[in-house]
Amino acid sequence: MSYQEIKSIVALVSTLLINGLYGWYVFWRYQQEAPGVAELFRFWAVAMLIFMGVALVAQILITVVFRAAYRRITGETEPSFADELDRTIGLRATRNAYYAFALGLVVALLTQVLSLPPVALFATMFLAGIASEVAQALTQLYYYRRGV
Amino acid sequence: MEKTGKLRIGNQVRKLRFLNGEMTQQQLADKVGVTRQAIVAIEAEKYSPSLELAFRIARAFNTTVEEVFILDETSL
């Protein structure tokens, strides 16, 4: 299995782990605090802003640990640049990530059209974010394995 | 009616590496400016390189693009 394939699997697992744990924590807090309509937007804005920081730090740590583990286990160094194959696959992965997020956004808006509670809007947008990252990692894995 | 499916393009990269002093995939990758994984994908016919990369690979073997890459006529 190539470096890029392993990297895609690590990205997939870490996305599911970080987003899943943080999502679980936020929904647990939401149920504990039960914010009213006035506090609802503030609650989700704070939750999403904190998540951006948490996700950034977690991704940096995972990248550093993954590279160190890859070097130690395989005795090889990771590619230092992205070539035309990486860029082609990267573009397709980004396209699919946008599709997944756009679909999630439409579903999020539909929750309000169907008069579901506001929490459904934020929860769906959060899930759309996870779906887009999963779509990106899966697309990369698929094209690195099957070819372009 | 004209076929619009993907053309199958074979290649002689592995053979040419062997004939050029058993050049490694990494050596070829360094010569043409891509990662070793890209050479692996090209050899396995999982990736058809850009025209620019095809010329660089041919030049690395001191040959022509037609000697390295072969169009499978049955896929036309």
From TrEMBL, chain A:
Transmembrane segments: 9-28, 40-66, 97-114, 120-144
Keywords (A to Z) from UniProt: Membrane, Transmembrane, Transmembrane helix
Top-level lineage group: Bacteria
Protein name: Uncharacterized protein
From TrEMBL, chain B:
One Pfam family this sequence matches: HTH_3
Annotated keywords: DNA-binding
Residue ranges occupied by any HTH cro/C1-type domain in the UniProt entry: 23-68
Record-linked CDD domains: HTH_XRE
MF (Gene Ontology): DNA binding
InterPro entries according to UniProt: Cro/C1-type_HTH (IPR001387), Lambda_DNA-bd_dom_sf (IPR010982)
PANTHER family: DNA-BIDING PHAGE PROTEIN, TRACRIPTIONAL REGULATORY PROTEIN-RELATED-RELATED
Protein name as it appears in the record: Transcriptional regulator, y4mF family
